[in-house]
């Protein structure tokens, strides 16, 4: 499950041919370090194969992006996240914030899976929602705001991306940076 030191030695699945007998999971999970997991949607489910990130703190977790597929039968993101939270914390209903690197469909399609999840906030993916939730209203577009997960914090900033609806996040203490370059995809 989790590692004490960062582990990026992972082979990401690249999808399987339509008629292949091998099956890969709809979501590949790699526990990077501590309470930080990197997930990738299978190319077999959607050709975009986006990455998603789960940061688990002592009081709540942050899921960054929800993938390119809304259908939980094809892409069981909520069930997977609940299972991961149960593994990491012992509580499948652990408090969760769902946020986005930007609002493209391959990063927000799974949002409806979390709509009725208790103790969950799904942050809108437009710039105004991001600014309001993360407290960036007075410092946009150059500011930074800390988002405390307890034991781990995430910094949200609008500095890196060229898109006004995009943002970047870094998780401490794992020093993993997720910077969106939304105009480039």
Automatic annotation (TrEMBL):
Pfam families: Lactamase_B (PF00753). Residues 155-185 are annotated as: Disordered. Residues 51-137 form the Metallo-beta-lactamase domain. SUPFAM superfamilies: Metallo-hydrolase/oxidoreductase. This is MBL fold metallo-hydrolase. It comes from Catellatospora aurea.
């Amino acid at each position: 499950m989790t590692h004490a030191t960062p582990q990026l030695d992972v082979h990401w699945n690249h999808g399987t041919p339509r008629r292949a007998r091998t099956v890969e999971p709809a979501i590949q999970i790699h526990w990077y370090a501590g309470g930080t997991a990197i997930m990738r949607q299978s190319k077999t489910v959607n050709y975009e194969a986006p990455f998603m990130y789960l940061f688990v703190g002592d009081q709540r977790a942050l899921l960054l992006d929800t993938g390119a597929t809304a259908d939980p039968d094809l892409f069981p993101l909520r069930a997977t996240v609940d299972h991961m939270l149960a593994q990491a914390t012992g509580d499948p209903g652990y408090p969760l914030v769902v946020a986005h690197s930007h609002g493209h469909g391959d990063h927000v399609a799974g949002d409806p899976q979390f709509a009725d999840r208790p103790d969950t906030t799904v942050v809108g993916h437009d710039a105004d929602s991001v600014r309001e939730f993360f407290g960036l209203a007075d410092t946009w577009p150059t500011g930074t705001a800390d988002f405390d997960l307890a034991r781990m914090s995430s910094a949200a900033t609008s500095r890196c991306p060229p898109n006004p609806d995009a943002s970047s996040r870094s998780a401490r203490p794992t020093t993993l940076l997720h910077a969106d370059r939304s105009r480039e995809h």
